[in-house]
Design goal:
InterPro entries: Niban-like, Niban_1/2/3_dom, PH-like_dom_sf, PH_domain. The protein has 18 helices and 11 strands. By secondary structure, it is α+β, with helices and mostly antiparallel strands. The strands form 2 sheets. Strands 1, 2, 3, 4, 5, 6, 7, 8 and 11 form a 9-stranded mixed sheet that branches.
């Protein structure tokens, strides 16, 4: 009965939240489609970027791979794992390096969206203790987790399962931390900005839904793909109810209750994810089906729709603007310069560091190429340089500048839950600007190579092109930063204003609905027009503040009047060409005959510190590692069916009283066996990469196996685990060996 109640509660809450959200999404879809078509017709672009943008992503590389220890919850032991981070930033864990080279199914796939990277067990215990109020281990009792080394790496999530790793040295820990943080940063940014209709419709629908619940301001869990974000939205409402209902029924010591609660939360999250995905996909398909007819109406009646919207806006403006201007003058205007200064200092330092790292890497490359053989060595160094923006360790000095971002008292005043939203956004801009600078440098140098004669010409050309690219970078980085500052100021101030104005304005908005023609009601919403009026009330002050910072040349910002016109009229035509393959074109190697050869030659961005399988120091729970007779995991059973995708079995085993009316039995939840993805071809692979040598001029060894490893889905990392014929057998809850570990799949 308890399990049935829980399943009904999950389905009911998910259905309720998704029902309300999908209504918001349908409304916002029409508005987003109208805005997209209007922008296409009218055009209103900003300054043209000077740097080229890489249109074909670098897909033939692995970010990092190496060994680290993972804690296996099923048998409470630490095991050595070989971890691969492919170009799509999924964490893929194999039994060992040999399993990776033989293309065996991975043990674990993790999409790290929403995770926090912790490097201290104390940090982790603090978060765990706060997740289940009233359940705290007594002093002197064993904590929920013990680490056998002083260098842990813990992936913590408020709803999903946690992952525990450790390494042997501080240097390894820093490198893995940088890699993991890059994975989180990339996966958090899971909603594609290339979509000009679906993406704004989705984010606006999430915002409108939360505002209907009186939740204004930034939201830390707006991370991952659309289904992950909606699952977080459901869990935000569902988890407190589960905690109140289930928490008191958990039995055992405090550590066991905490561990059981984490397992229940993870199983519920998986069920919510499956149900959310189905409902959201159906809503999106319905909107796509209606799109052609809506777009036809928009193009036919564009002028009338614009006239109708402007009439509505004028009426709302007359009602709202006087109140909004008073609110801005008293509560926002005095703080704009303080917020801007707090944003500008760390952001501009980060972009300055990007410039410095790029300059240093190109200068070092220039010296090494001249000293080691000219054009013959150029291909090797250019291939490394092309991956610079994706090198978490080299980029870390840029990213960590944003750690200085503190809004102090402003954070409480404007209801900003965390600065992480702004930090990650700025870091993503940094990576993009670095890649644009590198790609522009690559393109210009490639154009020059045919005209060069000797080392001296090459050296001078590299230096000259570097100076040209740096000038373009300075201009583009100024444009990107000014846009970021304006958007951040709006993100901070608009929710605050909406919350302040809601008691006097929101209840009166319904009377404006009659001003909208029924035929245009899908493209004009009173709520959106009201928010645009509120935005206009503060936009002038924000634009002025950013303009003054540029006029004063603060933090190397250019004035808006400074525009670089046609400095390189043919440069953007070069960017339309075929992507440059330095290895094939200039390394002197014969062209690869097969896809397998190309995969074998794939480069690794970050060089490996430790490639051999280490041994942990003696510690409680690690005895099996030190004994040669320790049982190893069984090979996956190809014929085993996947376990139930809704996570019911996991909850049944973790929930006390599911099968015992007395409610006294407590068992650990077994992990779910993955459900094969239907979105991704089963033959999708990640090229096997050998570690790039850290020493210049050293040849990169090829893999003897040359086999392609398994790749998570680009669209939804972690859903695909293996072809159907390679599914692991479902884990057995009673197993005490590694064979019970199974394959963990994250969303």
């Amino acid at each position: 009965p308890c399990l049935m109640w829980l399943c009904c509660l999950i389905a009911e809450k998910t259905g309720k939240v998704l029902g309300e959200f999908c209504r918001c999404y349908k409304e916002q879809y029409g508005v987003a489609l109208f805005n997209s078509v209007r922008y296409e017709i009218e055009g209103n672009g900003g300054p043209q970027a000077q740097l080229l943008h890489r249109k074909v992503p670098l897909e033939d590389h692995v970010i990092y791979s190496g060994n680290l220890f993972q804690y296996i919850e099923e048998n409470k032991k630490w095991r050595n794992r070989f971890c691969v981070v492919p170009h799509n930033y999924g964490l893929v864990l194999y039994e060992n390096k040999l399993a990776y080279e033989r293309d065996l199914p991975p043990r674990v796939l993790v999409n790290s969206a929403g995770y926090k990277i912790l490097t201290s067990v104390d940090q982790y215990l603090e978060l765990v203790n706060s997740s289940l109020p009233g359940v705290t281990p007594k002093s002197g009792h064993s904590p929920i987790l013990k680490c056998p080394t002083d260098f842990p790496l813990i992936l913590w999530h408020p709803y999903a399962r946690h992952y525990y790793f450790c390494v042997m040295t501080g240097k390894e820990q820093e490198k893995w931390r940088a890699v993991f943080q890059d994975c989180v940063r990339h996966c958090n940014n899971g909603i594609s900005e290339d979509s000009k209709v679906e993406a704004p419709a989705f984010t606006d629908a999430v915002r409108m839904y939360r505002q209907s619940k009186e939740q204004y301001g930034t939201w830390d869990m707006l991370c991952g793909n659309e289904t992950q974000v909606l699952s977080n939205l459901v869990m935000e409402e569902l988890l407190p109810e589960l905690r109140t209902t289930i928490g008191p029924r958990l039995k055992g010591k405090a550590q066991e209750r905490q561990r059981t609660w984490i397992q229940i939360s993870d199983a519920v999250y998986r069920m919510v994810y499956e149900q959310t995905k189905a409902q959201y996909d159906a809503a999106m398909a319905k909107c796509e089906q209606e799109r052609p007819q809506m777009e036809s109406t928009i193009r036919t009646d564009m002028d009338q729709i614009i006239t109708s919207k402007e009439h509505l806006a004028s009426k709302i403006r007359a009602f709202v603007l006087p109140k909004a201007e008073i609110c801005v003058r008293n509560h926002v205007q005095p703080y704009i310069s303080s917020i801007l200064e707090a944003l500008m200092t760390p952001t501009s330092q980060g972009f300055a560091e990007v410039r410095e790292v790029f300059f240093k890497e190109v200068t070092d490359m220039n010296m090494n190429v001249i000293n080691e053989g000219g054009l013959e060595k150029l291909a090797e160094y250019m291939e490394k340089l092309s991956h610079l923006a994706f090198h978490p360790v080299k980029m870390q000095s840029c990213y960590e500048k944003m750690d200085q971002l503190k809004l102090e008292g402003l954070q409480q005043r404007f209801d900003v839950s965390s600065t992480s939203v702004f930090k990650q956004r700025a870091q993503i801009h940094m990576r993009q600007q670095m890649d644009d600078a590198v790609y522009t440098f690559e393109t210009l140098l490639h154009q020059e190579l045919g005209k060069l004669q000797g080392k001296d010409d090459l050296c001078k050309s590299i230096q000259r092109i570097l100076e040209r690219v740096l000038k373009k970078y300075d201009y583009d980085s100024s444009t990107v930063r000014k846009k970021f500052f304006r958007e951040a100021l709006l993100q901070i101030t608009i929710p605050f204003l909406l919350k302040k104005l809601a008691p006097t304005c929101k209840g009166e908005l319904a009377k404006f609905q009659e001003l909208i023609f029924e035929d245009f009601a899908r493209f004009i919403l009173v709520e959106n027009t009201y928010e645009e009026v509120v935005l206009q009330s503060v936009m002038k002050d924000i634009m002025q503040a950013v303009k003054e910072a540029a006029v004063q040349r603060k933090h190397n910002l250019y004035r808006d009047s400074m525009v670089m016109h046609n400095s390189d009229p043919n440069l953007h035509l070069l960017g339309e060409g075929i992507p440059i393959d330095w290895g094939e074109e200039y390394s002197g190697q014969p062209e690869a005959d097969s896809a397998a050869d190309k995969r074998r030659r794939a480069k690794q961005v970050v060089s490996v510190i430790q490639d051999d399988e280490g041994v942990l120091p003696y510690e409680v729970g690690t005895e099996a590692l030190l004994q040669p007779g320790s049982p190893e995991p069984r090979e996956p059973d190809p014929g085993a069916p996947p376990s139930s995708p809704d996570g019911v079995e996991e909850i049944r085993e973790a929930l006390p009283g599911a099968d015992d009316p007395s409610g006294t039995s407590v068992q650990h939840a077994a992990p779910a066996s993955p459900k094969p993805s239907t979105d991704v071809p089963s033959e999708a692979k990640v090229p096997h990469a050998t570690p790039a040598s850290p020493a210049p001029g050293t040849e990169t060894p090829s893999s003897s196996a040359g086999m392609a490893c398994h790749q998570p889905s680009d669209k939804e990392t972690g859903e695909e685990v293996a072809p159907l014929g390679s599914q692991c057998s479902p884990p057995q809850p009673t197993s005490t060996t590694e064979s019970g570990e199974g394959v963990q799949t994250e969303f």
